[in-house]
Design a protein that fits this description.
- This protein has a single domain, classed as Ferritin, core subunit, four-helix bundle (Ferritin, Up-down Bundle), CATH 1.20.1260.10.
- Helices cover 78% and strands 0% of the residues.
- The structure holds fe (ii) ion.
Length: 162
């Protein structure tokens, strides 16, 4: 592992933080737009995960001396993308979102490789939160909606306990 203290590392951490601002707005919007109450509740839990990881990332950005102000541009982008997903048939939505998370998980995995040891726990949670979100989509697709949100619930609990 090489520790990168350059601006590139900070800008990537800031970008990931704003990604959670985006995600929170998107997931809340999806929860509100869905007619099915069980599916809506699952997206509320996913939005809660976004809030928990966003707080962690905000602390990391602050520690690195970055800008912790939540981007209105990213928030609005989340709001604007709600219809793109909820207009799809549920399985198409789950398949698309699972696919879209693949490069994000890879990118955050790379970011973990750049970080100082003291930041590793936060960035592991960052990657892991996308992994459980993808697991949610994949379990929905696999016909296991009864357990699809369980990994997300477990990660929220683990992050709160950490
Ligand atoms: Fe997220």
């Amino acid at each position: 592992m090489s520790v990168d203290t350059s601006g590139d590392y900070l800008s990537r951490v800031e970008r990931a933080y704003q990604g959670e601002v985006y995600g929170e707005a998107l997931y809340r919007g999806i929860a509100e737009a869905l007619d099915d109450p069980e599916r809506a509740e699952k997206w509320r839990v996913l939005a809660e995960l976004e809030v928990v990881i966003k707080a962690r990332m905000r602390d990391l950005v602050a520690k690195l001396g970055g800008d912790t102000a939540e981007s209105e541009v990213f928030r609005q982008k989340g709001v604007n993308n709600v219809q793109k997903y909820v207009s799809l048939h549920w399985t198409d939505f789950m398949a698309l979102y699972s696919k879209e998370l693949v490069p994000v998980i890879a990118r955050y995995g790379e970011l973990e490789q750049l970080c100082a040891p003291e930041d590793a726990k936060t960035l592991r949670f960052l990657t892991e939160h996308e992994v459980v979100t993808k697991a949610f989509c994949d379990l929905e697709l696999a016909g296991q909606p009864d357990i699809s949100i369980a990994p997300t619930v477990a990660l929220i609990a683990a992050m709160r306990a950490a």
